[in-house]
Write a structure and sequence with these properties.
Elements: E1 6-15, E2 18-27, E3 31-35, H1 42-50, E4 57-62, E5 65-68, E6 81-84, H2 96-103, H3 119-125, H4 141-153, E7 159-163, H5 171-187, E8 192-195, H6 199-205, E9 208-213, E10 216-222, H7 223-226, H8 244-256
Parallel strand pairs: 3-8, 3-9, 6-7, 7-8
Antiparallel strand pairs: 1-2, 1-4, 4-5, 9-10
Helix pairs in contact: 2-4, 4-5, 6-8
């Protein structure tokens, strides 16, 4: 795989008492999942890629575009990245339409001359047509997350970061939004870096998996090669393979997705 088809990152630093030394290459296409136990640094990697955190030393490049190296650090607002957080963080004073348009760079509806060309497609894909005039306080958790995804996509990102976007939802809301994530996987050509500790989500979405231990990358590869190394209850255990039953559960979850 050539550099032009990779997301390449290497970050070394500390966040409080947590030290990390991450290095990974991921395909610049499809969905790459970061999987590991809570506190291992999954969100730290996303924040460093987005430019929200600046590690003591680091390298970050998507294809031939370098965002960080020893001589440069491109600030977050100049990186063409969409970011979907665990909590949607929508603007409470704006309607659904206003939140979406903000993602497209529209700061004043009064000055709006024409709608962004991809707005209608994203609204239709995420089934937001009936919600456009609604205030975000009147949305369900799943609806708010769909709006957050739409807002991120309307930035026209070169890379989409998703930090446990379903973890704050109950099972019913997860089941509501997971098909939309699967649709994104099929329909958009933006590489997605997806953080989760839920094997069902990863089995349904991921093409490539990066396994993490606290502060470091342990192993990475295509989903088909990594499924046997995942355990939803205990995370990744670098010195053990999974029992046959757990490996079977991983394969079953993938086939159902």
């Amino acid at each position: 795989m050539t550099d032009s088809s990779l997301l390449r990152v290497a970050f070394q630093g500390r966040a409080g008492t947590f030290g990390y030394d991450f290095a990974l290459d991921a395909p610049a296409q499809g969905v790459t999942a970061l999987f590991g136990p809570s506190g291992c640094g999954k969100s730290t990697i996303l924040r460093c890629i987005a430019g929200l955190d600046r590690p003591a030393a680091g390298y970050c490049a998507l294809g031939d575009t370098v965002w960080q190296d020893a001589k440069r650090f491109v600030p977050a607002w100049r990186r063409p990245i969409g970011y979907v957080f665990q909590e949607p963080s929508l603007f409470p004073h704006l309607s659904v339409r206003g939140n979406l348009l903000y993602g497209a760079g529209v700061r004043s509806l009064r000055r709006l001359r024409r709608l962004p060309p991809d707005l209608a497609d994203i609204i239709a894909m995420l089934e937001l047509e009936t919600l456009l005039e609604r205030g975000v306080a009147h949305l369900s958790g799943g609806e708010r997350q769909r709006v957050a995804i739409g807002r991120a996509l309307l930035r026209r990102p070169a890379l989409l970061l998703m930090d446990e976007p379903l973890s704050a939802l109950d099972s019913a809301r997860k089941n509501e939004i997971l098909p939309f994530l699967q649709m994104l996987h099929r329909q958009i050509r933006v590489p997605i870096l997806y953080v989760s500790h839920d094997i069902g989500e990863i089995a349904s979405l991921a093409d490539h998996v990066v396994l993490l231990a606290p502060g470091r990358v342990v192993e990475s590869g295509p989903w088909a090669d990594m499924a046997d190394r995942l355990d939803n209850r205990r995370g990744y255990r670098p010195d053990h393979t999974l029992p046959d039953a757990a490996a079977t559960d991983c394969r079953a979850a993938r086939s159902e997705g």
